[in-house]
Every structure is written in structure tokens, then in C-alpha cells.
Amino acid sequence: MSKLYSDWLKIDLHIHTDFSRKTKNNDYKGVFFIDSLYNKLKEQDVSIFSLTDHNIINIDAYKEYYEKYNSATDPLLLAGVELDILGSSTTYHSLIIFNCNDYDGLKAIHDSLEEKYAKKNCDVFKRILTFDDIISAFDELDYFFIPHAGNTSSIIDAFKGDIAAAQKMLILLQSPMEKVQEKRRQIYNEHFDVRLTEAFRKKEDFAYLEFSDNHNIEKYPCRHMGDQGDHEFYYIKGSKNYETLRLSFIDPKSRIKTTQEFQEIKNPRDYLRTLNIKGNTLLTDKNLNFSPHLNVIIGGRSSGKSLMMDILKRSIGWCKIFCVK
């Protein structure tokens, strides 16, 4: 049964399959099986993930997963790909994560991407798109643009001659950045603040994330091919759906946590779990379930907000008296 309230979810939007070998030499280690992936994700309690091969989509792997997918119990697989994109000075890598978690939608994305490469007559090992290519290929689709920003395939390096263009693009697209070490984030924030008006500076509302970039499912959750240690997961606050990503990227300070930050909040204090209203002459019988985190009561004038708070106050007081007796 799915939870009735928002919770902290483990995510990993950067996982490769052996299809990455088709576009990059020696880019995957070991053997890839969907069943192995599924078991590893369940072991790690991952809630949302994506398969993001280099400049290609493993449509068969997606199809196999979707055919077995149970929305209530299984991790949500969002359609994705990792693209080589031409910047002002060199290429950079970016994840594209689509608002799509079904085979038919994924097939349309796959076909649009392959058609774009065919029109550009790209060699399979030299598949490079411009950002305009991406916009035209997926012009009617909803997706997130998540560029690398802290390694040799960084968007920062790719726009050294025109860093303002990269900053404006990321701000307008509400894009998070991947592969940025904690100690470098303040530097990035200072640069991005230059593009913002005074009113929007220092809000700490730019999202940074780390994913596994796994290239060896047999050693998951290892980073890359297993030679860089295990990945430390990030958590996002919400439900198991695409919109949770959107909310997290808009409000990262309260909705995105590192493993260490999550450990500090994962064991909440005692809290009121349920309010059972029964036999009240003014109210319909109702069970209200509360989150162990933040709860917000919203309603118009005379909708019952104050009445509910009064019931809560009286119930808690009665409980204390009852317990003491």
C-alpha cells in the first residue's frame, strides 16, 4: 500500500546498461540483466531510477522492465538518456530525464532520437547533438536537463568562452547539476548569483545531485565500473512520481538531502499518527493520517481548520489524562 503522505525517497537517475558499449568503447563492465538490476534496486530501497546509456536508449531493457512493473511495490523507471552535447568550446554530458514511464512513450522518444542522429549522419561512436537539436527532437515533451558540472565532461568547461550562456540556460530550465563536489558548490552558487537579480540572490535554490553513474550492475551500488567505491544516495521529498522531481528541483533546500543529511532526520520524534473522528454530530466520520514530517492544513474560511485543531487539542489532552490514570 502506498503512503498517504510525502516521504523521503532514494533516487538514482544515472544507471547504464551494456548498450553503452554500442556508442562508447569499453564503456560497460560485466553483464547486464534486468532481473539483476531489479534485485539490486530493491536491496537498496531505491524508489525512482532511470537507465541512461550514452547517446542511445536500450529499448528492450525498458520494455522488459515495464512488462513486469508493479506500480505499488516496484521502483519507478523514468525514461532517460545521457547525451553528448556541443557547447561553445567543447562537448559536455547531460542526462535527459523524461516525464514518461511506459513503453509506448519511451518508443516515441527512442525513435525521435534515432531519427535526429540519422538526419545528422552521425557515426555511432561520434554522436553529438546541439541544444537546438534536443529542443527540436523533443519539442512537445516534458523533460529535465541535468548536465555534468564537476568532471571532464562538464558544462562549465564546455562554455568557458561564454559561461553566461550556460548559466542563463540552466536558470531558465530550472536544471539541477550532477557531479559537483560539496566543497565546490559555494563557488558554483557565487557564479550563478551573478545572473540573478538582487531579489533572487542567496536563496540557495539551485539543485545539486549525485547519482551512481553505474556501469557494472553486478557491483551496484558502486560508482562507475566498481573502481570508485560505493555511491552515497540522495533523497528527495515527495511521492513516487515525476512531479516529485520538479518540486525538489524548485525547492532543493527543503526537498533534497544527502545520505548524511537524511541520517540526521530519518528518526523523527514521537508524532500524532492518526486522528479518528467518529460519532460527532457536526462532522462526517473520518480517519486523518499525518506525516512524521511537516503537515500543512489548508482550507477556506469556515472549512473546519479551527475545529480540527480544537479536536486535536482536546484529544491530546484526553490522552494524557487517560495515560496518567
UniProtKB/TrEMBL annotation:
<protein>
    <recommendedName>
        <fullName>PHP domain-containing protein</fullName>
    </recommendedName>
</protein>
<feature type="domain" description="PHP">
    <location>
        <begin position="12"/>
        <end position="122"/>
    </location>
</feature>
<dbReference type="Pfam" id="PF02811">
    <property type="entry name" value="PHP"/>
</dbReference>
<dbReference type="InterPro" id="IPR016195">
    <property type="entry name" value="Pol/histidinol_Pase-like"/>
</dbReference>
<dbReference type="InterPro" id="IPR004013">
    <property type="entry name" value="PHP_dom"/>
</dbReference>
